[in-house]
Amino acid sequence: MVKIAPSILSADFAILGDQVRAVEEVGADLLHIDVMDGHFVPNITIGPLVVRALRLVSNMVFDVHLMIENPDRYINEFAAAGADIITVHIETCSHLHRTLQMIKQTGKKAGLAFNPATPPGSLDYVLPLLDLILVMTVNPGFGGQKFIQQMLPKIKQISQFLKEQKPDVLLEVDGGINKETACGVVKAGANVLVAGSAVFGAADPSAAVRALRQASCCGMGY
Ligand SMILES: O=C(CO)[C@@H](O)[C@H](O)COP(=O)(O)O
User: Fold this and answer.
1) 72 assigned to active site
2) Residue among 8, 33, 34 to mutate when testing ligand 1 (max atoms within 8 A of CB)
3) Which are the contacts of 156, defined by CB distance < 8 A and separation ≥ 6?
4) Would you say 77 and 48 are in contact if contact means Cβ atoms under 8 Å apart?
5) pLDDT values of the chain reduced to their tens digit, one per residue, 222 residues
6) 172 CA → ligand 1 middle, Å
């Protein structure tokens, strides 16, 4: 079953709690929370305070995507605030193995993200520590960008690798995911679809989650 993860980056922050409740009620599986620092990516978004506030209004799995330099400094804070999965970017970690160990020590699930231009070579060495792999299908920093088609072979390659080595690891894609691109990424092997503007940019976010789930079925041959 493909999981749908609405990204709050495109939500209306003035009514964030209501928007989160709406996608939870319609059955979205994870809530994707984009943390940006203005250094690793050119945008600044939210911190542990917002995660803590949302934890009070939602029981969804909180999928916290750290697009920040030196993520080690904030792992414990996000874990304490209510994150369930903490994903770091390989490009930001000088000691990736240690960083992933830190996440696991908090009792949370660990994810590893790859920018579009980053090859997935290091996976072999850190796979035992991973619960999720995130393939960025746009350059991180902003919602509403166009899906990069060249990421399809990379998704396929990682999917094949996971099938052989550790099939329970989730394979998430993020960036430009909508009704048109969902089928292709699922066919390539993705099983978690992050969608920001396709959900919260829609007039009815609940209907948009349903439409995305429907579109993802085509990739599974339904
Ligand atoms: O991490 C990011 C962007 O860096 C994403 O999670 C965006 O929120 C995806 O937005 P859409 O491409 O779906 O509009």
Assistant:
1) no
2) 34
3) 188, 189
4) yes
5) 899 999 999 999 999 999 999 999 999 999 999 999 999 999 999 999 999 999 999 999 999 999 999 999 999 999 999 999 999 999 999 999 999 999 999 999 999 999 999 999 989 999 999 999 999 999 999 999 999 999 999 999 999 999 999 999 999 999 999 999 999 999 999 999 999 999 999 999 999 999 999 999 987 776
6) 12
Query: CATH no. for residue 17?
Result: 3.20.20.70
Tell me which residue range forms the domain holding 194.
3-219
ipTM associated with this complex: 0.98
CA 130 to ligand 1 center in whole angstroms: 22
Percentages helix, strand, coil for the chain (3-state, rounded to 5) are 45, 20, 35
Site of tokens 């240690």 = 98
Give the span between the Cα atoms of 60 and 69, in whole angstroms.
Answer: 27
Question: Which residue in this structure is represented by tokens 């992933």?
Answer: 100
Q: What is the DSSP string of 112-153?
A: EEE-TT---TTHHHHGGG-SEEEEESS-TT-SSPPP-TTHHH
What separation in Å is there between the alpha carbon of 72 and the centre of ligand 1?
A: 23
Strand partners for 31: 62
Q: Out of 12, 29, 34, 168, which one is annotated catalytic?
A: 34
pTM: predicted TM-score of the whole model, two decimal places: 0.97
Q: Is 176 annotated as a binding residue?
A: yes
145 CB within 6 A, ligand 1: yes
Overall domain count for the chain = 1
